[in-house]
């Protein structure tokens, strides 16, 4: 299907466009080493093996007293047993020198190593210190009770994480538990964002009445950052064919992913597609039957580091740019990241909280706010401000309703497909 693009009628469907993106995107093959405090959301490049047993040594799960089980055979709340105290082991202390004989116990704190002669730990809550310093115990114990056994979670050499695991906070903890300060992760894609347009000024700059501030570069950078992609540069180019050519030529050299915003429609100054093609980018598609985002352009090219680099020409309207980021770039990034694919369906069902109207022909992604009720589940209330230049509507939304391509009306209470908008995962 590569090389398909459409003009006018017969626009590619959303599903076709997504399918073309998913078959063009490839996991990045190189890896890099990162420090532990930079590994969140990254993807492991190699399997991670345990260098030692977990737990590392037998240790206590509670604050209490280490005992020999036989000593407490007949022990209960009504029938306390008194043992003499042989010593104490705290977390960070050594078990050695704290062994016990029959008739003795040892005070032991959570996380402390358990002396070899201790068979179980009785929780402090079932004990009492007597005036003479001996310990009264009011519960029996099973062998191994309240002892976390060496290697019970994981043995030396076993695989803790497969390659392709996306690192979440507990995994950061696990890597630290294994004593690793650095690890090998899949190289991040090198990403360039380009805003096109003579009307744009950067936030903080002086602005004339006929100009607007560039929001796309910032919003798209934030969208990448929200997913953990930080190798991102921002560029601005005026509506000038030569300037667009010069910038694209430069970025096509070494980027894995280029995302432009604006200049991709059918206007006099919409150079993105033409310039891409003149520089050897292979057009996969241009224009799809969706709203917002009809003019989206998608191409592929080879850069120095990546034979499967991707170019997305997003529309310039701020809502269109971000919605097409969510629809198309997010799935491409998930493949490029090298993470094992997760089996999950993107769409859910929801009940419309008010009716919708449109013309047939394009799948409309309606910005909506979701709520739940006990009776019939998820409800989707379309936000005010649905035009594609109105970021306020998208800013409030946590759902996109899929208002079917050929539909013209949906009534309040109708069940529709929706998907969750999550800028952070
Ligand atoms: P275009 O796709 O270039 O025709 O732009 C469509 C609309 O989006 C126009 O109203 C532009 O002014 C606006 N636009 C384009 N780029 C940006 C940007 N980076 N930030 C904010 N608005 C933009
Ligand atoms: Mg423009």
What does this structure look like?
There is one protein chain. The chain has 425 residues and is α/β, with parallel strands linked by helices. It folds into 4 domains: 14-30 and 188-336, Molybdenum Cofactor Biosythetic Enzyme, Chain A (3-Layer(aba) Sandwich), CATH 3.40.980.10; 34-54 and 152-186, Molybdopterin biosynthesis moea protein, domain 2 (Alpha-Beta Complex); 59-148, Beta Complex (Molybdopterin biosynthesis moeA protein, domain 3); 347-420, Beta Barrel (Beta-clip), CATH 2.40.340.10. It has 7 helices and 28 strands. Helix 1 packs across helix 6 (318-336). It is elongated, with a radius of gyration of 31 Å. Residues 196-197, 239, 262-263, 316 line the site of magnesium ion.
Topology:
Elements: H1 14-24, E1 31-35, E2 48-49, E3 59-60, E4 64-67, E5 81-89, E6 104-108, E7 120-123, E8 127-129, E9 135-137, E10 147-148, E11 159-161, H2 169-177, E12 182-186, E13 191-196, E14 200-201, E15 212-213, H3 216-226, E16 232-237, H4 241-254, E17 257-261, H5 272-278, E18 282-286, E19 290-291, E20 297-301, E21 309-314, H6 318-336, E22 347-352, E23 356-357, E24 363-373, E25 377-382, H7 391-396, E26 399-403, E27 409-410, E28 415-420
Parallel strand pairs: 5-6, 13-16, 13-17, 14-15, 17-21, 19-24, 22-25
Antiparallel strand pairs: 1-12, 2-11, 3-10, 4-6, 4-7, 5-9, 8-9, 18-20, 20-21, 22-28, 23-27, 24-25, 24-26, 26-28
The chain binds adenosine monophosphate and magnesium ion.
- Order of strands in the sheet with most strands: 7-4-6-5-9-8
Overall structural domain count: 4
Q: What class, by secondary structure content?
A: alpha/beta
Could you say which small molecules are bound to this protein?
Answer: adenosine monophosphate, magnesium ion
Morphology: elongated
CATH superfamily of the largest domain: MoaB/Mog-like domain
Strand content: 25-35%
Number of strands: 28
- Would you give the CATH topology of the largest domain? Molybdenum Cofactor Biosythetic Enzyme, Chain A
Discrete helix count:
7
Q: What is the radius of gyration?
A: 31 Å
For this structure, what is the CATH class of the largest domain? Alpha Beta
The helical percent reads 10-25%
């Amino acid at each position: 299907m590569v090389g398909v693009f459409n003009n006018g009628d017969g626009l590619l469907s959303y599903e076709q466009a997504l399918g073309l993106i998913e078959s063009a995107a490839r996991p990045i093959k190189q890896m890099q080493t990162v420090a532990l405090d930079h590994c969140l959301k990254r993807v492991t490049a190699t399997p991670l093996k345990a260098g030692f047993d977990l737990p590392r040594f037998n240790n206590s799960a509670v604050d209490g007293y280490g005992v020999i089980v036989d000593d407490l055979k007949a022990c209960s709340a009504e029938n306390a047993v008194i043992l003499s105290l042989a010593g104490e082991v705290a977390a960070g202390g050594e078990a050695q020198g704290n062994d016990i004989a029959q008739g003795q116990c040892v005070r032991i704190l959570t996380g402390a190593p358990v002396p070899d002669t201790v068979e179980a730990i009785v929780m402090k809550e079932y004990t009492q210190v007597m005036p003479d310093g001996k310990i009264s115990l009011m519960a029996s114990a099973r062998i191994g009770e309240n002892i976390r056994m060496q290697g019970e979670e994981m043995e030396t050499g076993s695989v803790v994480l497969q390659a392709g695991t996306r690192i979440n906070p507990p995994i950061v903890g696990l890597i630290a538990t294994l004593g690793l300060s650095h690890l090998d992760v899949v190289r991040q894609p090198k990403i360039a964002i380009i805003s096109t347009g003579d009307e744009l000024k950067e936030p903080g700059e002086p602005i004339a009445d006929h100009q607007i501030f560039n929001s796309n570069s910032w919003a798209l950078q934030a969208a990448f950052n929200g997913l953990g992609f930080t190798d991102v540069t921002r560029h601005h180019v005026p509506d000038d064919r030569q300037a667009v050519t010069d910038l694209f030529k430069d970025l096509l050299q070494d980027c894995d992913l280029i995302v432009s915003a604006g200049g991709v429609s059918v206007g006099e100054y919409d150079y993105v597609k033409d310039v891409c093609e003149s520089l050897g980018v292979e057009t996969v598609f241009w224009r799809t039957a969706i709203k917002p985002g009809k003019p989206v352009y998608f191409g592929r090219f080879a850069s120095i580091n990546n034979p499967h680099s991707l170019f997305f020409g997003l529309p310039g309207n701020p809502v269109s740019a971000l919605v097409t980021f969510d629809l198309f770039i997010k799935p491409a990034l998930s493949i490029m990241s090298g993470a094992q694919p997760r089996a999950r369906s993107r769409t859910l069902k929801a009940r419309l909280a008010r009716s919708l109207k449109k013309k047939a022909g394009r799948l409309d992604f309606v910005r909506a706010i979701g709520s739940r009720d006990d009776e019939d589940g998820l409800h989707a209330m379309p936000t005010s401000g649905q035009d594609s230049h109105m970021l306020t509507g998208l800013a409030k939304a946590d759902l996109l309703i899929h208002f079917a391509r050929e539909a013209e009306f949906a009534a309040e209470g109708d069940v529709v497909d929706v998907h969750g908008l999550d800028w952070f995962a």
